[in-house]
């Protein structure tokens, strides 16, 4: 058997976990169905600065830096949040995916591009690819939202557009009941270029947002999918799921890079032990440790998303108005964190601000949970 681990998919998470394992001295290969990774672009490219603690981020991948966020209600009431220093990067995902794959190759990972995996035998780590069966000790399914393990998807549309006078360091989002649990975004790349997109398959909703920005021109169009975030079993026999394949996305924004890279660290430690002892039962630890570390945060984000998605446009407007009237923007600026909502959530509960949510919405939220 040539490989300790076969990784399926050379997306950012697959390339990262493959590299981490190779750095530990294991023989690793990646099968990737595309001939060129990263294309077509399926990402808004917004990540928190914390990313560089998890994975190297070269300067030439960073397109823009942001420190403010503005959220709009259905009738355009805005909430503003800002930090002194930059908190997020807007990155070139195509370049970044290629960079991460090259780093994996530099560290000794064998990469087979244009090789689509047709089937995985989880119990004996066999992978069916190009009329061949390849066997390893373990398999990592990092095949993104295409993975057979992903059951529910939300469509996304995103355009690269030209707009005049963009506030370059401010990300904007738009909430209205028709889109929820999705939302629309404007991510600035420069003073004149932005990515405008939404989680919905409906182009009309995108045009509604583009009209707000008086878009001057559309340069590129992309479509993609995000997995619906859910708690699920992320190991099976000799296989682990990771990244979008494991639905490891933030329930509020559906961003997947930070959680996926964090999961890659946990997966590497667990796989190391499992390979050394040749024991698939050890993979359970990956599931347990991932949910031990992120379960609470994911539950809070799921709750926030559920509350918002049960509100109609009038109730959303009311909530935004109350946030403004009660100076809650300051609290949001102080405790807001792109990746962790638990601190802010605690403050909201402490200050009894949950009273701003209509009673009927709470009722339906608890019924749901
Ligand atoms: C419109 C949009 C905007 C987004 N914006 C953000 C954002 O701003 N910030 C953020 O953090 N996240 C964002 N995301 C989510 C982010 O893009 C994903 O979470 C991330 O790409 C997940 O990485 P991955 O490696 O798990 O999967 P992917 O990037 O999907 O990579 C999977 C790889 O597996 C390959 N593959 C699939 N099936 C097979 C097979 N059978 N055999 C071999 N290879 C296979 C694919 O070709 C692909 O290269 C966005 C997503 C969308 C759709």
From TrEMBL:
Protein name: Geranylgeranyl reductase
InterPro entries documented for this protein: FAD/NAD-bd_sf, FAD/NAD-binding_dom, Geranylgeranyl_Rdtase_fam, Geranylgeranyl_reductase
NCBIfam families (UniProt xref): GG-red-SF
Superkingdom of source: Archaea
Natural source organism: Methanothermus fervidus (strain ATCC 43054 / DSM 2088 / JCM 10308 / V24 S)
Alphabetical list of Gene3D superfamilies matching this protein: FAD/NAD(P)-binding domain
SUPFAM superfamilies, per database record: FAD/NAD(P)-binding domain
Domain FAD/NAD(P)-binding: 3-150
